[in-house]
Structures are given as C-alpha cells and as structure tokens.
Amino acid sequence: YVVGLTGGIGSGKSAAADAFARLGAAVVDTDAIAHELTGPGGDAMPDIRAAFGDAVVAADGRLDRAAMRRLAFADPAARRRLESILHPMIRAESDRRCRAATAAGAPYVILAVPLLIESGTYRQRVGRVAVVDCREETQVARVMRRSGLAGEEVRRIMAAQVSRSERLAAVGTL
To answer: Is the pLDDT of residue 123 over 80?
Structure first.
C-alpha cells in the first residue's frame, strides 16, 4: 500500500517521513533520488549538461543547484526542460523502489513527493495522500534557515508550487 506524502517546501515532509520510518514504513524519498541523479556521476547529469551547458555543473560534476535555480526561475522554458529530464527518471526510480519495498514485505510505503499534486498522475500512483502543512511564514523561515536562501527566493519557489488550498483539497479525493 503506497501513501503519497507531500507538502510545500519547508512544510516538514522530511520530519513526517522520518516519523513514518520509525513506525516501520518503507520511505521512498524523491528528493533523495533527485540528489542521486544530479550528484557527481549521476544518471541525469549528461542530459543536464547537454541541455544547459557547463554553467550549471559544479567542479565535482554535480548539479550546481544555485545556478540551476536562478536559471529555472528566470526562464520557465528552462524549468520545463529540466523537469522533462528529471521527472521521468525520478518517477521510474521511485516506482522501482516502491515495488522493491512492497516485495520485501513492507506493510506500507511512504512515497515522499514534494510536487505530488503538481504531477497530475498521483491518483494512479498512490492509495492515499497525506499532506504536511504549516503556515507560510513557518515555511519561509525554515527554508531560509536550512538553505540560506533569501525570503523572496523562497516565496518564488512557493509560488511555483500549487497553493496550500489545492494541496489540502487533494486529501480525500482518491
């Protein structure tokens, strides 16, 4: 049984996923998969380099997230291109890990996907949706503290995600 865990940036998804793991759930974290794919030698890096050039690749071969963030939020076409590279790879790997966890006997799987609702296909992927939610001011403060981003940059990221009300409306729609 797969439960989709989602929430806006800085909402507390990781803490919630950790709590589920302590209770015995298998956790498949798409952010962790994205970091693997965009790390040094990551499977997505050749396509990212081909699409965006060396300006978004750090010296060690990993994605320069700050450079990519600046590009993706300045140019919607660049963001869509990045998503077209990463999202199919992330989905394939997360599906593989969910199947493996189920085959290994996990009573249920938490599929942690920040952009679950935005994906448009969540109803086919999960049996239930759990949304982690908090006040927007809390989200901004957490992300600023964790990532060192300016408040306006955090709010730009939040604006690119579905609204809290849309996310919360997904609970119970399955």
So the answer is: no
Nearest alpha-carbon partner for 90 in 133, 42, 130: 42
Query: Pseudo-torsion of CA 60, 63, 67, 69, nearest 10°?
Result: -160
For the chain, the straight-line distance linking the first and the last C-alpha, in angstroms and rounded, comes to: 14
What's the CA gap between 111 and 129, in Å, rounded? 9
Given CA atoms 59, 40, 55, 114 in this order, what sign does their dihedral have? negative
DSSP string, 111-124: EE-TTHHHHS-HHH
Q: pTM (2 decimals)? A: 0.86
The one-letter amino acid code at 15 reads A
pLDDT band at residue 55 under the 50/70/90 scheme: very high
Whether residue 3 contacts residue 111, with contact meaning beta carbons closer than 8 Å, is answered with yes
